[in-house]
């Protein structure tokens, strides 16, 4: 019997071991991840911030964006969107791989590691990738003078928290997927893409007809964007709305974990 | 016999209406090499997953290392090495990275794992492939790596589900040699297989399973003695004449089995029987005298061949 094995230790650190494994797999793609993290904000800033921004500012001034430059208005939204995209990458693919494509979760579960620990480990690794992406994006925004360090540093934890909530719910939902033929296409084209377009990313949500606004209300991206604007340039938010945004994201986080823990356990112990 | 490492009584697993494992009893002693032999769908893998504390039984009792897997899954898994039917290595990582991350799942120190990896690479004959991505390994190498991975935690029981299925003969022999060495080192092995030669090579004792039930239990030799004769004479007369001649042959020995392509005759002295057949001018197109194997035991117990 190997005396170096402590089940108590594994109970505390199991998720960390899973995250370690996920991060070593991620590091195989480190240059791609870094290029995306830096390249993405650069392209958006040039194309939308400078290109579209000039058009908006020349035609309607700052009246449509609550008195701030167009670039100031969309920067927190782009940041939130990049964070959510990174979260999606590191939540959906590892879970599909783990259960279906390469069955890695079954290998993990043949050790003392449990289903909920695997879910938490995947989440921690996704959060690491999100944090890296958010910090890179924010640094580029600072470098371009779009935000100021003093006023906007707290947008970092808030955006990471929002993307984390999104990662949790995606981990939970993906764990339920048995047949991946349509899942990713549907998720990407019919959920992620509309979310990006209708979450008040490029224009205030309330400038859309009322019947389209619910898309934003249920979109984690909208909640993240509103919070990002509040924390980056003092966009006006009532205490109620501030609470609503945090509560919505927190509910997603808790709901995501509840679903993930249950589904992981069932799928691994059938 | 000291306290068994694994002990099952009335172990049952149902999926809806389907009974995969049907009230089986067995014990596995320390240091023993125990086999589950049977065709695909016999319930071997399901039994393995219950032992591995990754599948919950429907009824019956089972203890592994003295514990109930339903309550102590992680504690039991901490002392098992599992080699699943399909390799589930991380194909994007290298050989050593795979061993390393797996060792971490047992909470082992990085220093311990690094030392252990050297030992395992030598054992699995993968020293030269240490920094190669798993994707680039042959089937036999992947299998050896999966076994090495299962050994990283120095398990009390090594569980192998169809260890050589899908490998070419040479790769199988290399693997058997490695497993035999583990057996000599006193590692308790639990093996499922549908290859009778594998069971004969590796198992001290085995159970023959079919449709979720245990049909017989014993050492390969005991089973052959109990359910077959010393020798088997295989004769072929061509598919049309087999049927016609079968009744004549049936009268010449205690038992025959008619297979689609040949007739098996169970006797103590195969050569003598063949001479008798030739004297009767029956002229088989081919004939072969061989020793009885577990395949014959299985045929006797179930009326079917192992690989259909």
Automatic annotation (TrEMBL), chain A:
GO cellular component: a single term: ATP-binding cassette (ABC) transporter complex
Compartment annotation: Cell membrane; Membrane
Stored PROSITE patterns: ABC_TM2
Organism from which the protein derives: Actinobacteria bacterium BACL2 MAG-120802-bin41
Main localization (coarse): membrane
Membrane topology per record: Multi-pass membrane protein
ABC transmembrane type-2 domain residues: 32-267
Family membership noted in the UniProt record: Belongs to the ABC-2 integral membrane protein family.
Entry keyword Membrane: yes
Annotated protein name in UniProt: Transport permease protein
GO biological process terms held by the UniProt record: response to antibiotic
InterPro entries linked to this entry: ABC2_TM (IPR013525), ABC2_TM_bact-type (IPR047817), ABC_2_transport (IPR000412), Nod_factor_ABC_transporter (IPR051784)
GO molecular function, one term: ABC-type transporter activity
Alphabetized UniProt keyword annotations: Antibiotic resistance, Cell membrane, Membrane, Transmembrane, Transmembrane helix, Transport
Sequence intervals crossing the membrane: 32-56, 68-88, 118-149, 155-174, 186-205, 237-260
Automatic annotation (TrEMBL), chain B:
Record-given protein name: ABC transporter
Domain ABC transporter: 6-236
Gene3D superfamilies attached to this UniProt entry: P-loop containing nucleotide triphosphate hydrolases
One GO term of the biological process aspect: response to antibiotic
Family matches, as InterPro entries: AAA+_ATPase (IPR003593), ABC_transporter-like_ATP-bd (IPR003439), ABC_transporter-like_CS (IPR017871), ABC_transporter_ATP-binding (IPR050763), P-loop_NTPase (IPR027417)
Main subcellular location of this protein, as a coarse class: membrane
Any GO MF annotation of the entry: ATP hydrolysis activity
Annotated Gene Ontology cellular component terms: plasma membrane
Transmembrane intervals: none
Family: Belongs to the ABC transporter superfamily.
UniProt source species: Actinobacteria bacterium BACL2 MAG-120802-bin41
